[in-house]
Specification:
Arc Repressor Mutant, subunit A, about 120 residues, 5 strands, three-stranded parallel sheet
Length: about 120
């Protein structure tokens, strides 16, 4: 498994960092965040109690489909699909094509959150 590294910084910082990387002024390190949020509150919305329980269920039970995951955690499939889509955008979950459906996969077991202040140091 691996560590999911998340950055929390202002939109201006994220934008400038992206420009600096594209211009070659910054070379990202392997330990730099690849996922960014503009606040701890926005990160907290995606990693709320229900969603963390869903991530744990994926890790523990390895459901073969989104509908199996929904049944496992007692949530509506549409709700689970929307949540997974958002998590896919942030590279927290991967949906692996297994033929007729998609299998949710979590390939990290730890989160490391780096703030703008720590990144600037």
């Amino acid at each position: 498994m691996r560590t999911l590294i998340i950055g929390v910084a202002s939109l201006d910082y994220i934008r400038q960092r992206t420009i600096d990387i594209a211009a070659g002024r910054i070379v990202p390190k392997k330990t730099d965040p690849k996922i960014w949020f503009t606040s701890l509150e926005s990160l907290g919305r995606i990693l709320n109690d229900n969603n963390r329980a869903m991530l744990d269920a994926i890790r523990e039970h390895h459901p073969a489909t989104v509908s199996e995951l929904a049944r496992l955690i007692g949530r509506e499939q549409g709700n689970v699909s929307r949540t997974l889509s958002k998590m896919v955008e942030f590279h927290m979950v991967e949906l692996v094509d297994n033929g007729a459906s998609k299998m949710p996969v979590v390939d990290w077991d730890e989160i490391n959150i780096k703030t703008q202040h720590a990144l600037a140091a």
